[in-house]
Every structure is written in C-alpha cells, then in structure tokens.
C-alpha cells in the first residue's frame, strides 16, 4: 500500500482492517484500496433455561478506501465498509450492516468528513478495547460519540516535538435512529427504536514519546421526546513498555440508562506480547448509580496467535460476576469463544 493510503489509514485509525488493504488502482494523483476480514467465531454460553448453547458469530467485513490529491496540501477521500453477520442460525439470511459511509477532505491541519463515521469518544475506549472478542463493556458510548450517520466529523493530529496531540470533534444532526434487539426471560425477543435529536462529542489524546498517553472526552445527545440530554465524560490513560501494555478507562454519565439519571464505569486492561502471541486481560465494571444496580461486572482473558500479518486464531473467556437472580441466567453466564480471522 502506498504512502497515500498509509496516511488515510492513520487518519481513520479505528478502521483496523485498512492496514492490510490491497491497492487495486493508482495513478499520479489517486489511489484505491480494498480490504476487509473473514472471521469465524463460536460463542459457548448458557441461555435463560440454563442449558449450554453454541452460537455462531461469524462475520465478514469488506471495505473500499479512495484518496485523491487535489493540491500539494489538500486531498479528498471516500470510505465504505460493510459487515455481513451469520446471526447464529443455519437457516438465517444473515444481516448486512453499512458500518462506514463517508467522504471528505483533508490537509495539513486535519481532515473533515461527512456521513456515517466515528464520533470522538471511540479513540478513548480504544485505550482498553484491546481484546479479540470480550471487553469494552464499561466503554458503551452515547450515539453522538460512537459510529453514527448524519455525522460531520473533524480529526487533527499534530507533532509536538516528538510527542503527539490528536483532537477530534463531531456534530450529529437530528434524524438518526437506532433499533436494538434484546432477548429477555423465556427467550422473548423485543425490539426498541430510539429517535435522536442533535448531538456532539469532542475528544483529545496526548501521547508522549516515552510510551505514556492521556485522553479525555465529552459528549451530549438529545433524544426525541425526552427533555433530559444524555451526557457522558471519559478519561483514559495508557503506558507501553517494551512488550507490556497497561491502560485504564473511566466514564461518568447522566441519563444514558432507562429509568436512571446516573451511571459510572471503568475498565482496566493489560497485554503482553510474546513472540507471535498476545495475551490480554480486562476488568469491566459499570453501575446504575440511581438504582444501585450493577450493569456489567466481568473479568476476561484471551490469547491471540498471529501466524502472519494476515491470519490469527484466538481463544477468549469471560468470567461474568453479575447476579443471575437479578439479570437472568443468560446475562450472567460466563462465555468461552474460539475464533479464526483472516485479514486482507
């Protein structure tokens, strides 16, 4: 992949599969790359009846990235990524999700895009969202801070004498909606749709050349028909020393859980790289402070072996410490996952 697409990969760092993208077209001013992944995942966990169930979480992602030089200091970009999931049943038609769809311009002082793109809080949850499957339970983000449509987003990265400062800001216009599906007691499946009004988020990361990084962010999101805006603040820190990596994430939120005014959560993460194998572990805790209810409480461990830059296998286990009498057997079940992933 040429230097133009490497620059694009840095600007869209959350799209990890782009790093292995294959350039399919290039001329003096433009380039186009195609990438993605095939990932087989089997999840072993208990259902609400207490019996063990294996769920197929296999997925496929395809992305297309384009970049063209307009002047020596100005360029245009476009990006799309779709994900097809098996949905866990042998006779399912599956589900296609357009994860990213955006275009924009960039230059010396940053990049501006519009469409379905990342909000500004994802780069903070990335501090601890390092596992092959589990983790990131305490890093749930409001819609404006997460990947969302109708989103005008700015990203700037600046070299400060060996250190680096990254700043992101985005504004989400009204008209977005999310439909979530959940399975309750007795296997009853329910769907709920949330219609969003305007929202925004901002975030910044300062990285020192000695391996220490700090991050902070804030976001607000209004919901149609609700007078109280969702509010969320994040703080993150990480340290890299040789083959060791440790990180922490803290969030404080208001009005982001149904029938609750306050929630708080944190995630601790650690990783060790040994030759071609990476061992990771996280602890996640999130609570509904208004009703004194634990929303997440789990320790997870995994091991990922990289055969080369394109192919890896992993095993992941989550020790779930929620009370099954309060949340149900499925929501409190431990999970074991085996996966294989091919990136291209």
UniProtKB/TrEMBL annotation:
- GO CC entries: cell outer membrane
* Domain of life of the source: Bacteria
Q: Where is the signal peptide?
A: 1-21
What keywords would UniProt list here?
Membrane, Signal
Its membrane topology is listed as: Multi-pass membrane protein
One protein family per Pfam: Porin_4
In what residue span(s) does the Porin domain sit? 7-320
Chief site of localization: membrane
Q: What is this protein called?
A: Membrane protein
Q: Which organism does this sequence originate in?
A: Photobacterium aquae
């Amino acid at each position: 992949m040429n230097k133009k697409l490497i620059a694009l990969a840095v600007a869209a760092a959350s799209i990890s599969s782009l790093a292995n993208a294959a350039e399919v077209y290039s001329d003096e001013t433009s380039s186009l790359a195609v990438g993605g992944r095939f990932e087989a995942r089997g999840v072993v966990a208990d259902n609400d009846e207490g019996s063990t169930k294996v769920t197929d979480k296999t997925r496929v992602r395809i992305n297309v990235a384009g970049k063209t030089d307009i002047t020596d200091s100005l360029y245009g970009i476009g990006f799309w990524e779709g994900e097809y999931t098996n949905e866990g049943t042998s006779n399912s038609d599956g589900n296609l999700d357009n994860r990213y769809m955006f275009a924009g311009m960039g230059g010396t002082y940053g990049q501006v895009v519009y469409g379905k793109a990342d909000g500004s809080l994802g780069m903070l949850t990335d501090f601890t969202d390092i596992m092959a499957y589990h983790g990131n339970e305490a890093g749930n983000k409001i819609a404006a801070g997460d990947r969302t449509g109708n989103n005008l987003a700015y990203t700037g990265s600046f070299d400060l004498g060996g250190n680096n400062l990254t700043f992101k800001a985005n504004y989400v216009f009204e008209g977005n909606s999310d439909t979530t599906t959940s399975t309750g007691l007795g296997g009853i499946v329910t769907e709920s749709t949330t219609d969003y009004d305007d929202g925004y988020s901002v975030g910044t990361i300062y990285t020192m050349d000695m391996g220490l990084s700090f991050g902070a962010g804030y976001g607000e999101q209004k919901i149609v028909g609700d007078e109280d805006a969702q509010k969320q603040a994040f703080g993150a820190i990480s340290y890299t020393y040789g083959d060791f990596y440790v990180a922490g994430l803290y969030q404080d939120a208001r009005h982001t859980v149904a029938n609750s005014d306050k929630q708080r959560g944190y995630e601790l993460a650690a990783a060790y790289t040994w030759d071609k194998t990476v061992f990771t572990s996280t602890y996640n805790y999130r609570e509904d402070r208004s009703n004194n209810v634990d929303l997440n409480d789990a320790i997870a461990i995994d091991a990922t072996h990289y055969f080369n830059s394109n192919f890896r296998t992993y095993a992941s286990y989550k020790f779930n410490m929620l009370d099954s009498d309060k949340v149900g057997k499925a929501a409190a079940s431990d999970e074991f996952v085996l996966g294989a992933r091919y990136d291209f």
